[in-house]
Amino acid sequence: MEKPINTIILDDEPFAVHLLKDYAKKVSSLNVIYAGNDNYKVLELLKEYTNTLVFIDLQMPELSGMEIMQMSNHSHHNFIITSAYQEYALDAFKYQVIDFLVKPISFQRFYESVEKYLGWEKSFNTISDTTAENKDFYIKAERKVYRIIPEEILYIEGLKDYIRIHTTSEKIITHENMKDIIGKLPKDEFLRIHRSYIIPSKKIKMLEGNSICLYGDIRLPIGETYRKAIKAKFN
């Protein structure tokens, strides 16, 4: 039997918390580690645990569900929205949520949502396993899973809460950070030149002042923190 999925239920309505907790107990694949209305407790749990499934309401005092998803670096967690306000669905899906459950929530709808998550997680793990021995890797973006081929990366750009991967065929925006993404790249083949830029070493054309020129007429700035190390590498 596979290890149960750590599950959090966050809602400011006691009845909703009780109902969802009761539903979750009926699903053997779920292990409820918290059910309640304490936003800050949930934020701490999301730091402590990884790959948690979170059922989260949007309308709550102090911190909204949207704010919690943004603060929790949710690329390492998976969210299912539970809300009476369907008009928030479009905004919620910007955070790559698995599903949007409209209150009142039936057990059948709850179960379908869990099955959707399990199917998605299984497919993600399967394709990840197939590339364990090569350089390719997979990322989650826009409720899809993209295969990233390092040789096709032109450069990676860090945004405020996201990164944009520029490849030879497309631009992929995902809720990752620069530290995590560089850890997925082949060692010694990529170089961080700026807090906002990672480049493939093989695509460097020349160093010019405080900029690096890449093949394809791409010019990127070198951050002050990285200048000494980069110029030493060229020397």
UniProtKB/TrEMBL annotation:
<dbReference type="GO" id="GO:0003677">
    <property type="term" value="F:DNA binding"/>
</dbReference>
<dbReference type="InterPro" id="IPR011006">
    <property type="entry name" value="CheY-like_superfamily"/>
</dbReference>
<feature type="domain" description="HTH LytTR-type">
    <location>
        <begin position="137"/>
        <end position="235"/>
    </location>
</feature>
<keyword id="KW-0597">Phosphoprotein</keyword>
<dbReference type="GO" id="GO:0000156">
    <property type="term" value="F:phosphorelay response regulator activity"/>
</dbReference>
<protein>
    <submittedName>
        <fullName>Two component transcriptional regulator, LytTR family</fullName>
    </submittedName>
</protein>
<dbReference type="Pfam" id="PF00072">
    <property type="entry name" value="Response_reg"/>
</dbReference>
<dbReference type="InterPro" id="IPR046947">
    <property type="entry name" value="LytR-like"/>
</dbReference>
<dbReference type="Pfam" id="PF04397">
    <property type="entry name" value="LytTR"/>
</dbReference>
<dbReference type="InterPro" id="IPR007492">
    <property type="entry name" value="LytTR_DNA-bd_dom"/>
</dbReference>
<feature type="modified residue" description="4-aspartylphosphate">
    <location>
        <position position="57"/>
    </location>
</feature>
<feature type="domain" description="Response regulatory">
    <location>
        <begin position="6"/>
        <end position="118"/>
    </location>
</feature>
<dbReference type="InterPro" id="IPR001789">
    <property type="entry name" value="Sig_transdc_resp-reg_receiver"/>
</dbReference>
